[in-house]
Design brief:
- The protein has 258 residues and is an all-beta fold.
- The chain is built from no helices and 25 strands.
- It has strands spanning 13-15, 21-23, 27-29, 34-36, 41-44, 55-57, 61-67, 70-72, 84-86, 90-95, 100-106, 116-117, 121-123, 128-133, 137-143, 159-160, 163-164, 179-182, 186-190, 202-203, 210-215, 219-223, 231-232, 239-244, 248-252.
Length: 258
């Protein structure tokens, strides 16, 4: 007899309280085994306060709705990159109406010597994200804030590039960003602020360019760290191909930043 084809009963509704989530081109993993799934995702959080469980997209074309998540990896060690990492692929990120979502990845003081610094929402150079929503809110914080003892290790954007000096073997000093499009939602993006330099609010990290950024709607407040642009490049990084055609946008650079 022929073996029956398994029925995919997944509905794409995932709870961060159940563990970190990895979304691939073919499904998702929350635990040890991948569940085959190719539809839209809604990620919520039933646990109170913040969680250290994070979200990673490794490839594929996805629509992911955030509905009240609060990810804070400030105290986590190297090896957990950031609150939400888009390593590859194309993601439409929808902010559910009325929801408040926070993605924080401050530098870990215990690992300051490694230079590990990650964005709140990391969009790797080969990846794309489109952020949309009505009254849904997103606060993304990268790098760190306020502790000069961390030196120049805190150099990530709020939304955009991470800097992984010591872990990025190809080019540890360059932290460019992929393609970022904002069409809606209420968004606050804060670049790293600790130490001598910083990342952009939206865009590049240390020595990284903030290119291919388009804003056509929503309410956007972008705040750069020291020497980082509000929207554009991080410290010594260029900003190019930036288009703002709509929405309400406030962009403020850090000291010496655009």
């Amino acid at each position: 007899e022929d073996t029956p084809t398994p029925v995919n009963t997944a509905d794409g509704k995932l709870d961060l309280a159940d563990g970190s989530i990895v979304i691939s081109a073919t499904g998702y993993t929350q635990g040890d085994v991948e569940t085959k799934y190719t539809g839209d995702y809604t990620i919520m959080q039933t646990s109170e306060g913040s969680t250290t469980n994070n979200i990673t997209v490794t490839g594929g074309d996805h629509q992911i709705t955030l509905s009240g998540v609060n990810i804070d990896l400030s105290a986590q060690a190297e090896g957990i990159p950031c609150a939400f990492a888009i390593e590859s692929g194309e993601v439409t990120l929808v902010l559910a109406d009325g929801s408040e979502n926070t993605l924080s990845r401050l530098i870990n003081k215990n690992n300051a010597d490694t230079g590990i610094s990650y964005a709140g929402l990391w969009v790797q150079e080969q990846a794309q994200v489109v952020i949309n929503g009505g009254t849904g809110k997103l606060a993304a914080v990268g790098g760190g804030s306020g502790s000069s003892e961390l030196g120049n290790t805190s150099l990530a954007a709020g939304i955009g590039a991470s800097r992984a000096h010591a872990s990025n073997k190809n080019n540890p000093w360059k932290s460019n960003v992929g393609t970022i499009t904002i069409e809606g939602g209420v968004i606050t993006a804060t670049g790293s602020a600790a130490g001598t330099y910083g990342g952009a609010g939206i865009g590049g990290g240390q020595h990284g360019s903030g290119s291919n950024i388009t804003i056509s709607g929503g309410e956007v407040n972008a705040i750069g760290g020291k020497c980082g642009a509000g929207i554009g490049g991080g410290h010594t990084g260029d900003g190019s191909d930036i288009t703002i055609s709509g929405g309400e946008v406030s962009a403020s650079g850090g000291e010496s930043g655009a």
